[in-house]
Amino acid sequence: MTTRFDGTRDVQRAIERLARRLPEPLEEMAWISYNYLWTWTPGGKDLFRRIDAYRFQLADENPVRFLTNLPERDLLRAATDEMTLARLREVARSMEYEMQRPVEHRRTGGPVAYFCAEFAVHSSLPVYAGGLGVLAGDILKEASDQALDLVGVGLLYRRGYLHQRMDLSGWQQEYWLEANTDQLPAVRVRGADGLPLKVTVPVWDGELSAHVWRVDVGRTPLYLLDAELAENDALERWVTARLYEGSRDIRLAQYALLGIGGIRALDAMGITPGLIHLNEGHGALASLEVASRRAKNSSGERPSVASLLSSERDRFIFTTHTPVPAGNETYDAGQFFSVLGGALDEMQLPREEVAAVSRVDPAAVGEPLGLSPLALRCARSTNAVSERHAEVARNMWRPLFDATEAADVPITYVTNGVHLPTWMAPNMRALLGAFFGPDWERHAHDPGLWRHVDEIADADLWRARCESRLKLVELIRRKATVDRLARGEDLGYVEAALDAFDPTHLTVGFARRLATYKRLDLLLHDPGRLRAIIDHDQGTQFVIAGKAHPRDVEAKEVARDLLRLKRDLDVPNRVVFLEDYDLRVALRLVAGCDVWLNLPRPPLEASGTSGMKSALNGGLNLSVLDGWWAEGYNGQNGWAIDGTVDDDTREKDRRDAAALYDLLEHDVKPLFYSRDDHGVPVGWIARVRESLRTLGPMYCASRMVSDYVERVYR
Q1: Is 547 in the same domain as 610?
Q2: 259, 284 in Cβ contact below 8 A?
Q3: Which domain-ending residue is among 413, 446, 466?
Q4: Among the four 2, 74, 242, 692, which has the fewest Cβ within 10 Å?
């Protein structure tokens, strides 16, 4: 049996080092800290907050950093606090139970290797930007919950994704912070010689070297490649500096390290995947690494690259997320081979043949090259991320498959879902658990379970919603005050943030990546109507958050227009833009907002998941019928805006903005403020109950991962 140097022993050594710093009664906190399972184990966050909530927050809720820097007197105090020790025992037992369940191989012949450019596991591991990473992180967590044999493969971005600061003009400024890897819940994987395991990938005219880090996400290991090595030059080290780096050459080098380097790292650790799941096309070069090995082992005439990919198709599946051709990066041949030529030569793969399989039309020599066509050709199964997205993707990729009809294109779909224990607020999770029974989250995709929502009293559901809204308002007041101070706003405007938002008012959220197709500007279409909706005794308050890519000038202009309009409307307490949107802010927003807005220009929303998270928390969706909402909306579980496609985008925007204002003014607000004698909005709660009952089982990650296992992996 091949010895595996997969980081298991390295994690144990790191745990032992941290444990030696802790008083004996707290030693179990060391292994808890090195496994992100604590983040979704009931009581996990409270365990660290009990010791010092303020310092834990300053440590970005990173328990390794928190415990490493905590003064000895505070550790000794915690070691004698019976409540802390009781909570420690409870969390440790829960995590031990999860970790000891037997692994389920699910007939894949080995682990599923899940390749993705970003993973949103927790805010303390800043290797994510947005929805793609959130989905990937949720899949790792749900794979752990289902005891699925799966490993994640990504990159360790030392500076992560951008941080955001809005200046006084409302313009987004970006900055990056370098992670201190010595205090992350991550360890370098070491080989048989005790030295850090190293892989190399030819990039440009040299050899790019990378170490491999292991992060434990429950029972699922995540492996991250890191080019910050002394033997690399400054350009090579920058390959894993920033996520979605603006330089196209750097991004190509990242994709080479992810795809080719990821396969080599698994091989060096003794891990032989039964399936390789490419989540978006960034990791598609893995297929060439696998194909090249078959070529080297074949006797006689060397097979073509196309036939090699075909012979390995049973090992690959591909999830596509991009609903427009322009969203799939392409490169001219000169740029493509200047970065990747050395790797292809080392793999003995002819460049012209690689170029052919990287084009939509292999014979179109002048066509640019891309990784999505390569991923489509190497995979035995391709899936979109919603039913409507599958229709769009089949039509978009019809030329590649030389299909007469879009229906003949072999692209299916697995609609996204979200990890319920991560995204459901503790109070809602406890309320449902009281009616659903123990261990219910494991069976959250069973519609029969959710029928118990009908047994919950209106007053109890409303109380849970009010508690979550109050917590959101408290966050908004704190964060808006700090944001305004940091911008240098006048003191009167800063002080207004101390009373921002009313915990009893209808609260509407819009938070996602700021891209122009998301149409945040629909809110601004008619300032007079917007003010009438906001400025009323029974008013509405809007919380908005999101980051624009540094090179997306249009998106930055929309955000600036919003901040200017907010001043012009003179409603500083009713419209708030929260800067530097991240996972911690997202958790509060999806829990506390009464209504979640999604206003994409159809059909450009592949799926979307933020609205699913809101629904799990008893929020209601008001969304364009695109992505997941096109299949989730039933007329009674939220509100919808027409999702038909119109080439006249200006007229489409005008109609959709009018529909948005009409719904808020005539449907949403009256239903929210119509109360019975006990102050409960009975009609609103009926719609909340319908949303939970219909959307809960369909859009949780347990359903999504079960679909992948049954419909794709097998």
Answers
A1: yes
A2: yes
A3: 413
A4: 2
CB 115 within 8 A of CB 222: no
Please choose, from the candidates 300, 328, 594, 304, the residue with its C-alpha nearest in 3D space to the C-alpha of residue 469: 594
Characterize the bridge pairing of strands 275-279 and 316-319: parallel
- Judge if 139 and 71 occupy the same domain: no
CA dihedral 7, 12, 18, 23 (to 10 degrees): 170
Taking residue 366's Cβ as centre, other Cβ atoms within 10 Å add up to 8
**Whether residue 439 sits in one domain with residue 388:** no
- Strands 150-155 and 220-226 come out as parallel
Per DSSP, 320 falls in state -
Strand partners, 202: 207
> What is the Cα–Cα distance from 51 to 67, expressed in whole angstroms?
10
Whether residue 56 contacts residue 48, with contact meaning beta carbons closer than 8 Å, is answered with yes
Closest CA to 192 of 44, 22, 10: 10
Peptide bond into 126 cis (omega under 30): no
Least confident of 135-139, 174-178, 210-214: 174-178
What total of structural domains would you count in the chain?
3
Task: Please give the Cα distance from 311 to 307 (Å, whole number).
Answer: 6
Task: Please provide the distance, in angstroms rounded to a whole number, between the alpha carbons at the two ends of the chain.
Answer: 25
Q: Which tokens sit at 79?
A: 């070691």
Q: Model confidence over 326-362: pLDDT tens digits?
A: 678 899 999 999 999 999 999 999 999 999 999 999 9
- Residue 319 is classified by DSSP as E
- Map residue 544 onto helix, strand or coil: strand
172-175 and 620-624 strand pairing:
unpaired
Under 8 Å between Cβ of 261 and 288: no
Query: pLDDT (tens digit, 9 = 90+) per residue, 449-507?
Result: 999 999 999 999 999 999 999 999 999 999 889 888 888 888 888 888 888 888 999 99
User: Could you tell me which residues come within 8 angstroms of residue 320 by beta carbon, excluding any fewer than 6 positions away?
Assistant: 280, 281, 372, 375, 376, 382, 383, 384, 385, 393, 411
Do 23 and 154 have their domain in common?
no
CA distance 275 to 112: 5
| Residue with tokens 């007041």, as numbered in its chain | 477
Alpha helices in 419-457 (DSSP H): 420-423, 426-436, 447-450
Phi-psi region of 170 (alpha: psi -120 to 50; beta: other; left: phi over 0): left
Q: Coil, strand or helix: which one is 570?
A: coil
Q: Residues 555, 668: one domain?
A: yes
Which among 367, 383, 413 is the end of a domain?
413
User: pTM, whole model, 2 decimals?
Assistant: 0.94
Domain that holds residue 502: 433-698
